[in-house]
Amino acid sequence: MAGEKNWTLLTDLYQLTMAQSYFRERQFGDATFSLFIRSYPADRGYFVAAGLSAVLDYLEDFAFEPAAIDYLARQGQFSEDFLNYLSRLRFCGDVWALAEGQIFFKDEPLLEITAPVIQAQIAETFIINQLHLQTLIASKAARCVDAAAGRPVVDFALRRAHGTDAGMKVARASYLAGFSGTSNVLAGKEYGIPIVGTMAHSFVSTFEREIDAFRAYAAAFPRGAILLIDTYDTLEGARRAVAIAREMAARGEQLIGVRIDSGDLAELARAVRKIFDEAGLPQLKVFASGGLDEFDLARFSAERVPFDSYGVGTRMGTSADAPWSDMSYKLVEYQNRPVLKLSTGKVSLPGRKQVFRRRDPAGGFAGDTIGLRNETLGGEKLLREVMRAGRRTAPSPPLGESRALFAAEFAALPAAVKALRNPQIYPVELSPALHALRQEVSRKYQEC
To answer: Does residue 341 carry a pLDDT above 90?
Structure first.
């Protein structure tokens, strides 16, 4: 995880081979690279920006340590003068970016970096690595929160996340996008996220009788117990939970509720809720988990299934239905000369850019324009300078502040764009000046 070790070698080999070629040709000019997503995954209509803090940590700490230089020397591909150059290299560029928690759309720059070309080139791999995962997860988590219709959603993804760093970033990104907590204890410590947990089926199975497992857990957590009731027979488990709740009440304690992790969750929730209500225990909550995603949560909400909260794990933590996006990091300017890519289906937008957002009278999103950085257009400017000459322009905001920004942004997003299936495409246009520049640069390259 960024900040815990030096990550400068976490780059693709071709970044370093290109860097050596730049070095031999004495190409040290400033380059601007723009990072954006070319297209929407299926059933997606927006993205949630996440991961910028890790990128800025990396750039501030950018340095090739002696062990890294020694390793590269042993590969036999790099010249001694180039390795000496790398040993002194520090990031000294500028970064303009969307704030974490901000909503953006395809083709809009999530980040633009201007730096000597070698620095900007080597940094590409880490930047995409961090922003791609966290933006995917925040976008998936936002859909889950919306589908839950006001019921809390907790991150249960750690065990099946794709490695330790992913597990940490999933917890952070999902909390940014509105999850109420995480089962990941280390993420709770590192990021200040509320930690939430119940028990596993193995705990219940170690006792000869289910009710003895419930009693033991209640004794350990007299004011925070949630019982897992589907190890054997879910409805019998619910009736035993009623007995435990009454025993606890007699001692001045309180059972919070139960979790159901398998079976026909909607049918079982209704039956368990009826058992609790008939027992005069309407305060007992019913939690759901077990392979859930936003489509399950939306169905439960539409059918008014009486769940009080959800634990969402694997499908959110891997963004299972859309596990990757077409995120790209493209050169758009070199030594003040606008450049672009003309590959079929992958034409890029030249020059340093800005995104301008218009709002309707009620404050809702009304449309975006991608323009040039120095243009003056109507609307809110979304890209802000977050790093100048290799140093942050201000401390990264606390996670809670980014979470609040997301909530405000999401509230302003049109409902049709939020739709889980076949969302409406949000209007994004190019400014006349950017359109003209792209045509001009395109003609220039076609004539070469």
So the answer is: no
Domains of the chain: 13-139+322-447 (3.20.140.10), 144-317 (3.20.20.70)
Nearest to 242 by CA among 214, 265, 266: 214
> pLDDT tens digits for 112-128?
999 999 999 999 999 99
CA angle 107, 111, 2 (to 5 degrees): 130
* Tokens linked to 77: 């591909």
- The stretch 319-326 carries a mean pLDDT of 96
* Nearest alpha-carbon partner for 214 in 250, 196, 239, 184: 239
Q: Is 442 left (phi over 0), alpha (psi -120 to 50) or beta?
A: alpha
Alpha-carbon torsion angle 157, 162, 163, 167, nearest 10: -30
pTM of the model: 0.95
- For 150-199, the pLDDT digits (tens) are 999 999 999 999 999 999 999 999 999 999 999 999 999 999 999 999 99
Q: Which residues of 273-285 are buried (b: 16+ CB within 10 A; e: fewer)?
A: bebbeebebeebb
HSE of 281 in the Cβ direction (CA atoms, 13 Å)?
Answer: 26
Sheet with 225-228: strands ordered across: 181-182, 153-155, 309-312, 285-288, 255-260, 225-228
Q: Which residues of 105-125 are buried (b: 16+ CB within 10 A; e: fewer)?
A: bbbbbbbbbbbbbbbbbbbbb
